[in-house]
Design brief:
By secondary structure, this protein is mainly α. It contains four helices and two strands; from the N terminus they run αβααβα. 40% of the residues lie in helices and 3% in strands. The chain has a two-stranded antiparallel ribbon. Helix 1 packs across helix 2. The longest helix has 18 residues. It is globular. 31% of the residues are buried.
Length: 118
């Protein structure tokens, strides 16, 4: 287990982080503002508990090495976007998906089952 960070992040700092990632990658954020807030709360909680941005839609181990595949944006983000237009939790969407005006829906989990926490 990693020790919690020396300085906790606020939801506003996390929002700035995901906005920066989206802008740099040319992505959009989840269009449902209420759901986006839930994702931001999850990222904030994961950072303040574990010291890193673990994916807000998955259970994380609390060990950065074990969770390395689900550090936001996770390694499954781009393959999910290429196939479905958005990542697993819908935090990041492609410009093409965003242009449809649709809300991200559930998609299959790509993370191998041995990585899941029981």
């Amino acid at each position: 287990m990693m020790p919690p960070p020396k300085k906790e992040k606020t939801k506003e700092e996390v929002r700035k982080f995901i906005e920066m990632v989206a802008e740099k990658q040319g992505w959009h954020l989840h269009p449902d503002k209420e759901f986006l807030e839930i994702l931001i709360e999850g990222l904030t909680s994961n950072f303040n508990t574990h010291g890193y941005f673990g994916c807000p839609c998955r259970l994380i181990e609390g060990n950065k090495e074990v969770d390395s595949d689900v550090l936001c944006p996770c390694v499954y983000c781009v393959p999910d976007q290429e196939e479905f237009g958005h990542c697993y939790c819908g935090l990041y969407t492609t410009p093409e998906f965003h242009a449809t005006g649709k809300i991200p829906q559930g998609i299959p989990e790509r993370r191998p089952e041995e990585q899941w926490i029981d």
